């Protein structure tokens, strides 16, 4: 009986598997900026037939982004989340969101 040498995920170089995952210690630390140095971009996407408003990219610590997202969700009355420096809000709320972020001291792009 002959062994199959080319199986999915097999090691060809006998050192590393093909699907090497980064360890948590290798995360990229991004720089932080003051609120008035941000140039936020607004996007609109359709996901599963519903509109999602995106705003980002934020250069703040993750804890500050989550706290800001929570406060904005409460003021807008919508659901949402923050992922990788971007905030996602349910619905089309870009005009209200732009006003609230300007009150917080953020700059926006057109």
What does the model show?
The chain has about 110 residues and is of the alpha+beta class. It is built from 2 helices and 5 strands; from the N terminus they run ββαββαβ. The chain has helices at about 60-75, 95-105, and strands at about 40-45, 50-55, 80-85, 85-90, 105-110. It has a 5-stranded mixed sheet with strand order 3-4-2-1-5, covered by helices on one side. β3 (about 80-85) and β4 form a beta hairpin. The termini are far apart.
Q: Can you lay out the helices and strands and say which pair or pack?
A:
Elements: E1 39-47, E2 50-56, H1 62-76, E3 80-83, E4 86-90, H2 94-104, E5 107-108
Parallel strand pairs: 1-5
Antiparallel strand pairs: 1-2, 2-4, 3-4
Provide the spatial order of strands within the biggest beta sheet: 3-4-2-1-5
**Helix count, DSSP H or I runs of 4 or more residues:** 2
Summed over residues and divided by their number, the pLDDT gives a mean of 83
Proportion in helices? 10-25%
The oligomeric state of the chains shown is: single chain
Largest sheet: 5 strands, mixed
Any descriptors?
alpha+beta, 5-stranded mixed sheet, extended, single chain
Quick take:
By secondary structure, this protein is of the alpha+beta class. The protein has helices at 62-76, 94-104, and strands at residues 39-47, 50-56, 80-83, 86-90, 107-108.
